[in-house]
Amino acid sequence: MDDHAMELSSNGSPVKTTPPMMTRLEMALRFLKLGSIGFGGGVAVIALMEQECVRRRTCVETEEFLHGVGLGQILGPFAVNTAFFIGYRMFGLGGALLAQAAFLAPSVSLVIGLSWLYFSFNQIPSLQGALAGLAPVVIALILSAAWSMGRKSIQSTVAIALLLVAVGGSLARINPVWILAIAGVVGYLLKLDRSRSRGQAAYLILPLPLLIKGLPHTLSAALPATSTLMTVGLLTLAMGFLKVGVVFFGGGFVLIPVLHQQLVTQLGWLTPQEFIDGVAISQLTPGPMAVLATFTGYRMAGIAGALVATVALFLPATLLMWGISHFYQQLRQVTAVKDFLAGVNPVVVGLILAAAIALAPSSLHWERPLSLVLGAIALVLFTRFKWHPAFVLAIGALTGTLASAWI
Asked: Which of 82, 101, 107, 127 is positioned for an S-S bond with 285, CB 3.0–4.6 A?
């Protein structure tokens, strides 16, 4: 297949259209870069992706990008799913898998290296200062994304009302899926898409899913418990993480209780302390929380186990995104769907703001004013001077390393 952008024909199959703004290799390098600097996860990574793939290089249109993020929330980590969606829209299934693999490669490689250090020397490299400096920058990055989207989608009294409901509902720990569903119904009933200005983009991006409830708290115990002093076969390892992958709703920290029950309580593949340390190691990488699977796989079967566990965990979400991406062009043309998405637009901004509010207390500290100053400077650099996030994140990490006692 030539390096051409992919559209979908009437039967949903990819067809060639106009050439994209980059080749497959350039796309892979772009996602490799995003996977290397995407500290903060969730909405922070999506903000980076939007700058790189929409504003700087038109991999997909704004509307397509944001729809892909929203659809990617159904199962698994939505940043990884969005990378798959963009790759598919550009180069079909091969491009989707390439984008996804390139995006995950830095985090998976780093976790394997840190896992080797941990299990060889029983210690985690000290990077807490750098992480402390990154945290305020991440909050600023999320707020700048909300500002950029809000300027286009909050333009009426109804939109303001929906935004306020979204902020309040999210902070009250109401499942964001219900908030979005209700907003979509409002949009459908009021025919909001047909009442908007013709040039206004439709936004569909779900927030950092830290507050999503309703995950299954039990998994079927199909595999026998195993001592952490023993290794397991790759097939057994794959089956264990496939089971988690099919209930991997919400992503982020929502995955922790599911993995704890499966890996510690049921299977005994990790001790409680190893599990806690594995969570800490996953936070030292720019990738999703799901790279905890990589840590566990390494513990049980070395590098091969790390790769098998990672692939198995992401496989269910990847298959679902394949189907969504394949039929996306047909779904987006339905008038009812357009109205539904128009109702979601302002709610999305409210949910992103609520995510920033929920995360701020752990990143911005009144007793350590340097964190507030760093966050404010980062916000100005993002919104006023349009600095690239990589440079601002580097400043935050350096500041945290040099002045960890004040941040």
From this structure: 107
What angle, rounded to 10 degrees, do the helices at 292-331 and 272-283 form?
50
Tens digit of each residue's pLDDT, the chain (407 residues): 444 444 444 444 454 444 456 789 999 999 999 888 876 556 678 888 888 888 777 788 877 887 887 777 777 788 899 999 999 999 999 999 999 999 999 999 999 998 998 888 765 555 667 767 877 887 887 788 788 778 877 888 888 999 999 899 878 878 666 787 898 899 889 887 765 544 443 333 333 333 333 333 332 333 333 333 345 689 999 998 998 887 665 455 546 666 777 888 788 898 887 887 777 677 667 777 688 899 999 999 999 999 999 999 999 999 999 998 998 888 777 788 778 777 877 887 887 788 788 778 878 888 889 999 999 999 999 889 888 776 887 898 899 889 877 87
Neighbours of 7 (CB within 10 A): 13
Q: Where are the domains of the chain?
A: 15-121+137-363
* Cα 82 to Cα 89: distance, rounded to the nearest angstrom: 10
Tokens of 107: 């985090």
225: amino acid identity, one letter: A
Per the rule left: phi > 0, alpha: psi between -120 and 50, beta: everything else, 122 is: left
Asked if residues 71 and 85 have their Cβ atoms less than 8 Å apart, the reply is yes
In this structure, are residues 322 and 75 in contact, taking their beta carbons and an 8 Å threshold?
A: no
Radius of gyration for the chain, computed over Cα atoms and rounded to the nearest angstrom:
21
Is the whole-model pTM more than 0.70? Answer: no
Beta-carbon contacts of residue 365 (< 8 Å; ≥ 6 apart): 371, 372
User: Left if phi > 0, otherwise alpha if psi is -120 to 50, otherwise beta: which for 191?
Assistant: left
For residue 178, what are the CA distances in angstroms to 175, 199, 224, 250, 347?
6, 28, 36, 13, 11
Which one, of 76, 117, 114, 79, lies nearest residue 100 by Cα?
79
Secondary structure (3-state) at 8: strand
